[in-house]
Write the structure tokens for this entry.
Amino acid sequence: MASKTRQQKDRHQEILEAAARVITERGLAETRISDIADRCGVSPGLILYYFESKDRLLVEALTFANDQFYLRFSREMRRMKTAREQLDRLIELSVPGLLPEYERLDEWALWIEIWVRALRDPMMAKEREVLDRRWRQSIADIIRFGRETGEFPAGWDAEELGLQIGATIDGLAIQVLMNDTVFSPTRMQRVSLEVASRLIGFELEPAEA
């Protein structure tokens, strides 16, 4: 029985991984259940057994991608001794297209699909809020850690700063995803750090010419 449960869990994860990849590549509107089934080698009926609809699959695919992001980031944080290292790495991982593919699962395309549907779907809006709260909390935790170690000065509420910095990164990421000609991934990284330094209150090294 334990082996069967583990197989079901593995298959469920395989479907979520495939869904995250296919939706990222094609967009939700152009993705069929059969496309995801072909990618992971299962029947469309099995996917519908696990998930009620494409929207439900989208939410769970983004949640899965989020879990992978935070699992990886928490492992990296344990090796980082300073809050600045943690903040720099969090921003680096958050910039679309900045890092090579083997270093990231680009979930921004999934986020955009969620945001569009959340405008008119109350249930999707609630799911979005839960995921966004986790994102802002991760930034607030780094700020609190930096204050405990003396790297960051006392100031505004860490939760409020997490909200403002998180919203800034979200907005800048949209510009990069839209291939804005004057807003490159490296510029987004720099601007995100500049905004964070001003809000949190730490010195940032001058940008290279």
Summary: The domain at 54-200 is CATH 1.10.357.10 (Tetracycline Repressor; domain 2). The mean pLDDT is 86. The chain is about 70% helix and 0% strand.
